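Hi, here's the filled form for the chain we discussed.

Project: internal
Contact: R.S.
Residues: 363
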Amino acid sequence: MVTLLYFLFWVVRETWGLSGKRVQDYTLYTGALGTAYLVFNAYQVTKNENDLKLCSDIVKACDSASKDSGRVTFICGRAGICALGAVIAKHSGDARLQDHYLTKFKEIRFPSDLPNELLYGRAGFLWACSFLNKHIGKETLSTIRMRAVVDEIIKSGRRLAGKGTCPLMYEWHGKKYWGAAHGLAGIMHVLMDMELKPDEVEDVKGTLRYMIKSRYPTGNYPSSEGSESDRLVHWCHGAPGVTLTLVKAAEVFGDKEFLQAAVDAGEVVWKRGLLKRVGICHGISGNAYVFLSLYRLTGKVEYLYRAKAFASFLSDRAQKLISERKMHGGDHPYSLFEGMGGMAYLFLDMGEPSKARFPAYEI
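And the returned structure, exactly as it came back:
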């Protein structure tokens, strides 16, 4: 508990307290909104009203800093600020502020060149819709609005796939990525939360089966279509992000093939996932969520043990190894997705592992 409070204190101090409460990076990924999301998780554990007030203050600053932003997603755009702001306002009992953020959310417009992936694209906007509908109420964001976005994602995926063996395919900056952040795993993960037509369900299943069939002999997954570099074992690229998506597929479809593939990918993370970085996106903290997800799916305590092993390594050794330059603290060392903020989020979730969810990915 002392370790957790220490990390929470330092993250808030470094990202908010020392900034004079001025926001330069408003994103959840590396900026102040990530701190707000972390503090909101702390509030859900402690029910401390001071945490809720701090969270609301940070979101208001992010709202102001992002008012001219054209980014539309939860992790890197306006949708995250408006969605989290509305949910916090609901918990605070502030109906006027909740309506303010919901109105701002519904005013979000897509640029013409919007991609489909999670961090900057349509999937990232849809995730924000699901977040609102979970925390505020069904149809907070209407099925009709979400359906229009799903239509664009499906149409785009089928068009790029053409007559290939994978039903859906997507590009980001000209590359056909597979991972959770920019590619197939992230887009399929979000689509499984949508109301899909039968043929669309089959396309999602077929895409996941294509990925399973095309994995490396080691069990790891390529970062992009055709890549032969079996190197990355991260949430953003490789087996960890794909595992979380396969767990979701096993839950949604009840298919043993997806369950077995998730278990197989989890073994890759156990063998190769103790990385030299601490963060959620491409570090040990994010990889620990693979085991928490498998624990939730299977009930097998070996996965809980593995999650605890990764978390304990971070708690016991990360700071010392970073100081000795044997580990990388992240380019944004206190942020949610790259640094100590992700560690603190994981430590909070380890208190009640059956309820743990990878932040801004698992609903």
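Let me know if anything looks off before we file it.
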